[in-house]
Here is the input.
Amino acid sequence: MNLHDLPTSLEETLFNPAAVRLDGKRILILGVANASSIAYGCAAAMRSLGAELALTYLNDKAKPHVQPLAEQLGVAPELFMPMDLRQEGSLESVFETVRQQWGKLDAVVHSIAFAPAQDLHGPLVDSSADGFLQAMDISCHSFIRTAKLAAPLMTDGGQLISMSYHGAQEVVDNYGLMGPVKAALECTVRYLANELGEQNIRVNAVSPGPMRTRASSGINEFDALIEDAVTRAPLGRLVTLEEVGYAAAQLCTLAGSGQTGSVVYVDGGHNIKA
Here is the structure.
């Protein structure tokens, strides 16, 4: 059997450039902080593949760092929105704006994590109940809330993506409180994938290797973590923002349409090393 013997529909799929494009797709990116943030890497990759974007930023302090990026990406002013998950109704307001402006949604990238510094920097055994709950609420439960708000807008199916880290699977020195939180997030991905699959909504996590972002700057001895990643990863280097962005984008294309409930590692192979 050769390629010319394939059924027409399959042959067209195999040779269809649109299989790795996002033209006409409307994607909401939550958590853009600056040009070094993973959320921005996802936004830039998805825009380059033809997606139309909506972006959120944290607050007025963050806005000057994000607004030029939104303009560069062609985000409509009304879809460039503040969102602080510590404020009641903030997430709901974002989705209401998306509903009014677009009426539907094809994908959401949830790139948000937070833990109070005093709880993040100390031993897990010393973490406070309030700090643990806040980290779990913002970093994990907000993804569940996102899924609930996004699902009614995904009338043709869709993709939900959150960001994890290998500290969810293995102990990473100084990652502390965020290890259990990310483990809960990865489990949440699997349960949401199971629940939303009948609506053709796929749910996945992307797990980048260590990257120099604003969020990572809060981790103690982060330089040592970077050195370990470079030394032990089979590729012998850190991954780039572009590589992470395109890995997330691929999940939103036809090429990723059979994938759900997965944790996609983009870490140069670091996760495979004992």
About this structure: Strands lie at 26-30, 52-57, 80-82, 107-110, 158-163, 201-208, 263-266. The longest strand covers residues 201-208.
